[in-house]
Specification:
Glutathione S-transferase Yfyf (Class Pi), Chain A, domain 2, 4-stranded mixed β-sheet, 9 helices, Glutaredoxin, alpha+beta
């Protein structure tokens, strides 16, 4: 399988974590968002939406990290990224959605480039924008995991779940935008537990061949 991705892309990062947790190796194909390589005609044939990541399974190309991760969970069910109980699965999916639906989409590169080019936002304004939405999401995430009396070392239980797959790349992104992470001690403890695992370490942006 070929994984089209960019080292610093949060969506690429979350998919790399999921693949690593499942023990699935891929060929790394770098798409350099810094020079808008995703807009080239060659990549348009891979993903008409011109976004990363994209996963070429050999039979078809899959796009959109939530859809790809769901496919991975269905095709490679162990180790599971979702709990067995339906209510617990809903809880984990909700945590993931805080990041995937409410934080990341309004802080991704396309949005920030639009703020810069069309609205004249400088880097101070960009950081303030990102801080606003990361803080709103992380405040809710922190409250939910703090209130979960059954929670172990991770966002849910004592093994990584879909929630952690989404959370860790967003923490990495928050650092890039100079967000003060000390205000969320439970999130920081979860990230520490995750980063003790090889699957998360190997997926980190700085460990990718196109980093730098």
């Amino acid at each position: 399988m070929k994984l089209y991705n960019f080292f610093r892309s949060s969506t690429s990062h979350r998919l790399r974590i999921a693949l690593n947790l499942k023990g699935i190796a891929t060929d790394y194909v770098a798409v350099d968002l810094r020079v808008d390589e995703q807009q080239n005609d060659d990549f348009r044939t891979v993903n008409p939406q011109q976004l990363v990541p994209a996963l070429d399974t050999g039979d078809r190309v899959m796009i959109q990290s939530p859809a790809i991760i769901e496919w991975l969970e269905e095709q490679h069910p162990t180790p599971a990224l979702l709990p067995h109980n339906a209510e617990d699965r809903a809880h984990v999916r909700a945590l993931a959605a805080i990041v995937g639906c409410d934080i990341h989409p309004i802080n991704n590169r396309r949005i920030l480039q639009t703020l810069r080019k069309q609205f004249g936002a400088n880097e101070e304004a960009i950081n303030a924008w990102c801080d606003t939405w990361i803080t709103a999401g992380f405040d809710a995430y922190e409250a939910l995991i703090a209130a979960d009396s059954r929670r172990g070392r991770f966002s849910f239980g004592d093994t990584p779940t879909l929630a952690d797959v989404y959370l860790v790349p967003q923490v990495e992104s928050a650092r890039r935008f100079n967000v003060d992470l000390t205000q969320w001690p439970h999130i920081m403890a979860v990230e520490k537990a995750c980063m003790a695992l090889e699957a998360f370490q190997k997926a980190a942006p700085g460990q990718q061949p196109d980093a730098g």
